[in-house]
Predict the 3D structure of the following.
Amino acid sequence: MLVATFSARKSITVRTAGSCPDLTREAATGQVRRAVRALQLETELRTSPERRADRFVSRWQALDRAVEQRYAAGDYSGYHAARKEMSEMARSLERDPQLESILANRKRELGITFESGRRLGAELAFHHGIDLGRGRGLGL
């Protein structure tokens, strides 16, 4: 249990450190209040299904806008990178049925306007033209 907690905190610390160098500098000099608070907020986000759903929707919408902007600007490497991240997000729903069930009620926010009967991850991929990597070959 202690190892899992340490590992989880380590990954959060690395993510937080990468996204906020000022916070890392403060923690290195012994001023840890903001760093501790950032870790607490990250833990709340990871453990609350509703907050995870909010984060998923906002990240999806931001990536969807980025895809359109990058394509329009001719930044095809950025376009493909954003679509790859969207594909990974859609695939991640297969491993998180709790998040998938919460997001099922928020399909419009994810850009899905009709019901196809697919699981949400597959529906997201289909609606946005993302390949989830499943081949359609004959298997010969």
